[in-house]
């Protein structure tokens, strides 16, 4: 016992419980991408697009991590570069463009621009990996708007550019202690930085990319609903790490964020189900409808998971799923939404749901709900802070901050995405695969298919392991 | 010799099998098939959008039998596969010129 007490194999600032939870939470969020998004989107696309979609997910995840190590993490969460006078927008715009690849930068105590007084109890490597899995899922989400016609090479360029120009900037501004964080806008786990931004990018990207072949749109039935169930289930439970990891301490705020996330999601599922059963043209409960409702709940509770109480979480699920249901069924028939082929509807379940959730913070945030440990320039009190919505404080201040931040996210993401897509289009001489390739799909692009079905029989030729080419 | 081909509703397969065994048929070949007839297709709804599925699932059954067995086999199939609802399927009969059993090289009705 004495030996254990006096020879702890890590520095005194490190708390094993916090470090463990943070790594587990990060892994849960990583699972949401691999295999979560891979099989969810693979199940939602036509059979001939499964391989292409899944490979883009795995490639995007890998690209983001390399960018993150080389410059992304420090741009978003490292010390802030003060380009302008203190307090101005440009002084809190972006961090330093430096890699994260030395022993001290990985094993030293984590520090973040937003967290200057109360130290993290885990190393930078933990924080960097946790923040990476959030960055990684964002382009994978907006991929849903682009599947079924985007050139593979274009995707390999879009991801690093988008992470650098859009994700890192938005993350720094809202989370890294940047301008909007200093102003008081909050985004608990990425309703804005991730979901609203992904929704906008999917919409703008799809508009520039152009629609899928009309034959593919007509026959856009999903390839496998069981795989959708697997992916959606991993997303839901993975979200425990998404929202439960963002307090950065394994405390009561983490626990309440997990519970709120789950209840909002359950209400989202049931709300969409009821809307389908009573208000849809066919009056049928549908599985894929329920999954949309699940996404609405998950996405909308993301900006508010730790700021609302249980009642607030129920309202978040109810309001987001019903509004997005209306948008999905009616707004989608109105310009410009009817004109843009957002293949999997990312602008609805992520864009609108993220926006609604972010604005609801301004109404529903309960000041009795405290987030511990995080402290920055604008936070009052020591060791914890809270957010006050209109229902509690009778002030529209928080809502106003949320609206300003949302407006920034929408404009910057739309502008940046357009710039990146036109740049890649110019570099590659086009963003789309040619129509004869699109007609075939996976086999034409990768010479692979999701369910290989060769003509079976036994080879009459020389066994391949003794073949001259293989020796 | 005759080849009897029946296209029937999938859930009727086992009833047809038992019925034709009852009249002395010793083998049949079954293939999942899709087709349209007077029933037309059906609608499926995915993510709020309706898709027309023009071809519906059927089972195609092929039975080779002797000339004398044909009427009994036809009756057995029709009786077993019939629900009375549109879409019960079709049965048709073709002449078979030759039959060979691969294992023994027997020819003609003995090969059946």
How does the major sheet of chain B shape up?
4 strands, antiparallel
Return Rg of chain B in Å: 17 Å
The assigned structural class of chain B equals alpha+beta
The number of strands of chain A is: 4
Strand order of the largest sheet of chain B: 2-5-1-6
Shape call of chain B: elongated
Instruction: Report mean pLDDT of chain A, rounded to a whole number.
Output: 90
Q: Number of helical runs of chain B?
A: 2
Put the structure in a nutshell.
Chain A has 471 residues and is mainly alpha-helical. Chain A is built from 18 helices and four strands. Chain A has a single domain (21-78, 114-446), classed as Ammonium transporter fold (Orthogonal Bundle).
Protein model, in words:
The complex is a heterodimer of chains A (471) and B (112). Chain A is mostly helical. Chain A has one domain: Orthogonal Bundle (Ammonium transporter fold). Chain A has 18 helices and 4 strands. Chain A has a two-stranded antiparallel sheet. Chain A has a two-stranded antiparallel sheet with strand order 3-4. In chain A, α10 runs parallel beside α12. The longest helix of chain A is centred in the last third of the chain and has 32 residues. Chain A is globular and about 75 Å long. The N and C termini of chain A lie far apart (59 Å). Chain B is α+β, with helices and mostly antiparallel strands and 112 residues long. Chain B has one domain: Alpha-Beta Plaits (2-Layer Sandwich). Chain B is built from 2 helices and 6 strands; from the N terminus they run βαββββαβ. In chain B, the strands form 2 sheets. Chain B has a 4-stranded antiparallel β-sheet with strand order 2-5-1-6, with helices on one face. A two-stranded antiparallel sheet of chain B has the order 3-4. In chain B, α1 packs antiparallel against α2. The longest helix of chain B is centred in the last third of the chain and has 12 residues. Chain B is elongated. The mean pLDDT of chain B is 93. The interface between A and B is small, with 15 and 8 residues.
């Amino acid at each position: 016992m004495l030996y254990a007490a006096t020879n702890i194999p890590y520095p005194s600032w490190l708390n094993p419980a916090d470090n463990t939870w943070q790594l587990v939470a990060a892994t849960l969020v990583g699972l949401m991408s691999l295999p979560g998004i891979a099989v969810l989107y693979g199940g939602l696309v036509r059979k001939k697009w499964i391989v292409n979609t899944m490979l883009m997910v795995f490639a995007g995840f890998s690209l983001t991590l390399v960018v993150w190590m080389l410059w992304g993490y420090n741009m978003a969460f490292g010390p802030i570069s003060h380009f302008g006078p203190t307090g101005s927008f440009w002084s809190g715009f972006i961090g330093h463009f430096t890699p994260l690849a030395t022993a001290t930068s990985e094993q030293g105590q984590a520090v973040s621009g937003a967290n200057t007084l109360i130290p993290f109890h885990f190393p930078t490597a933990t924080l960097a990996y946790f923040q990476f899995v959030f960055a990684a899922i964002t382009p994978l989400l907006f991929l849903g708007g682009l599947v079924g016609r985007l050139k593979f090479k274009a995707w390999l360029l879009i991801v690093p550019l988008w992470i650098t120009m859009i994700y890192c900037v938005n993350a720094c501004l809202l989370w890294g202690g940047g301008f909007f964080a200093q102003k008081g806008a909050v985004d608990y786990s990425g309703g804005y930085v991730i979901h609203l931004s992904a929704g906008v990018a999917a919409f703008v990207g799809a508009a520039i990319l152009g629609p899928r072949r009309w034959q593919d749109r007509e026959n856009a039935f999903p390839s496998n609903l069981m795989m959708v169930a697997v992916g959606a289930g991993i997303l839901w439970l993975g979200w425990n790490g998404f929202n439960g990891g963002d307090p950065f301490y394994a405390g009561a705020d983490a626990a309440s964020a997990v519970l709120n996330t789950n209840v909002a999601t359950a209400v989202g599922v049931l709300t969409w189900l009821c809307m389908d059963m009573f208000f849809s043209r066919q009056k049928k409960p549908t599985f894929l409808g329920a999954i949309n409702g699940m996404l609405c709940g998950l996405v909308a509770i993301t900006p508010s998971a730790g700021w609302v109480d249980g009642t607030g979480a129920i309202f978040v699920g109810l309001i987001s799923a019903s509004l997005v249901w209306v948008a999905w069924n009616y707004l989608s028939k109105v310009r410009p939404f009817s004109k843009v082929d957002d293949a999997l509807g990312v602008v609805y379940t992520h864009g609108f749901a993220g926006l609604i959730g972010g604005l609801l913070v301004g109404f529903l945030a309960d000041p009795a709900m405290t987030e511990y440990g995080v402290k920055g320039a604008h936070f009052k009190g020591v060791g914890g802070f809270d957010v006050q919505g209109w229902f509690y404080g009778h002030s529209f201040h928080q809502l106003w901050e949320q609206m300003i931040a949302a407006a920034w996210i929408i404009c910057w993401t739309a502008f940046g995405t357009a710039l990146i897509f036109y740049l890649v289009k110019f570099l590659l001489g086009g963003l789309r695969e040619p129509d004869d390739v699109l007609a075939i799909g996976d086999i034409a692009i990768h010479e692979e298919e999701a369910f290989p079905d060769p003509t079976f029989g036994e080879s009459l030729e020389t066994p391949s392991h003794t073949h001259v080419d293989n020796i | 010799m005759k080849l009897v081909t029946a296209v029937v509703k999938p859930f009727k397969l086992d009833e047809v099998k038992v019925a034709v065994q009852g009249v002395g048929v010793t083998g049949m070949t079954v293939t999942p098939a899709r087709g349209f007839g007077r029933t037309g297709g059906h609608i499926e709804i995915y993510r709020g959008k309706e898709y027309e599925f023009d071809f519906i699932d059927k089972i195609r059954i092929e039975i080779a039998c002797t000339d004398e067995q044909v009427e009994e086999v036809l009756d057995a199939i029709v009786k077993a596969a019939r629900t009375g609802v549109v879409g019960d399927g079709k049965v048709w009969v073709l002449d078979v010129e030759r039959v060979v059993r691969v294992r023994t090289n027997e020819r003609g009705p003995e090969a059946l």
